[in-house]
Amino acid sequence: MTTKAILITGASSGFGRLTTEALARAGHTVYASMRDIQGRNATAAAELSAIEGLDIRPIEMDVQSEESVDAAVEHVIADSGRIDVLIHNAGHMVFGAAEGFTPGQLAELYDVNVLGTQRLNRAALPHMRKAGSGQLIWVSSSSVAGGVPPYLAPYFAAKAAMDALAVAYSRELARWGIETTIVVPGAFTKGTNHFANSGRPADQDRQREYDEGPYADLVTGLQPALAATVPEDADPAGVADRIVEAVDLPFGSRPFRIHYDPAQDGAAVSFGVIDRVRAEMLRRLGLADLLSPRARAC
Fold first, then answer.
1. Deepest of 22, 181, 262, 282, by most Cβ within 10 A of its Cβ?
2. Catalytic residue among 141, 159, 170, 210
3. Which member of 4, 133, 143, 155 is catalytic?
4. Which residues contact 235 (CB under 8 A, 6 or more apart)?
5. How far apart are CA 75 and CA 69, in angstroms?
């Protein structure tokens, strides 16, 4: 197996941390990026660095800062000479009535979950295109095409935007020899800190109208109901395992979309149809070659 230089965002916890460790155990060099590596995430960075026998290199990156993203990518290139795999994992969840979130809150959420991927692509893709190879992995969400419970609208909308961007990028990178894999996790109420660290509506008066009105049952009932749909043995580490499998497959055989949803909310069925419809349109346009990456001689 060839050791790959992998850059992942949001590596301090959750799917990011699990994936970082799993890729390093598979023999790869993982640049584990996170915000505030000297402050709030200092412990996470130190713990990752201290895992014996694994090549994990924590680096500072704030996906909301173009300067920070550019510096992180340049550090990886200077250190390793290349970026073989780029994993868009950083994200933030919010919970509450959509009306209670201010436009500024939505803008900040999209900045993390969507615009952050654009900053990183613009920094890293010139190096990958020059090499004529690489893989982009996007951590999406089953909410984009599966069951959509209330009180998560801003997060779901941001994930849908990111997923759409990932699909468009896949077509525009295929002729550069760069592959795309979109990973679609389902809901996990254990083993991640998504709900525990989720943001809340800034307009508390507006939220209170929902909480004390006809939606009062959602305050205490929704999260337990969601948890009940997830099997007790559901392990978020399965997401990391599937990312490792996709990275280690030969060029041209990596799946475009990977589903890992123990709750089975229907996204796999919906995306099966959606992706076929999109592929058929490309064929009608005479662009079927964009559905598969083309190896390029460097």
1. 181
2. 159
3. 155
4. 191
5. 10
Active-site option among 4, 12, 31, 141: 12
In this structure, what token pair is assigned to residue 140?
């999406």
d(CA 50, CA 66): 29
Catalytic site includes residue 190:
no
Q: Which residues, listed in sequence order, are joined to residue 136 by a DSSP beta bridge?
A: 86, 180
CA distance 263 to 228: 9
- Greatest alpha-carbon span in the chain: 63
* Other CB atoms within 10 Å distance of the CB of residue 199: 16
Both structure tokens of 101: 């979130």
DSSP label at residue 10: S
- Can you tell me the distance from the alpha carbon of 53 to that of 257, in angstroms, rounded to the nearest whole number? 31
Q: Is 12 a catalytic residue?
A: yes
pTM for the whole structure? 0.94
Is 10:69 a contact under the CB 8 Å cutoff?
Answer: no
CA distance 49 to 53: 10
143 given a catalytic annotation: no
Q: Which of 140, 142, 143, 170 is catalytic?
A: 140
Beta bridge mates, 199: 94
Sign of CA dihedral 8, 9, 12, 14: negative
Mean pLDDT by 10 residues, the chain (298 residues): 93 96 98 95 95 96 98 98 97 94 96 97 98 97 89 94 98 98 86 67 96 87 79 87 97 95 90 97 97 80
Spatial distance between the Cα atoms of 36 and 33, rounded to a whole number of angstroms: 10
Active site residue 155: yes
Calpha distance 202→129 (Å, rounded): 42
Residue 181 token pair? 């894999």
Q: How far apart are CA 224 and CA 222, in angstroms?
A: 6
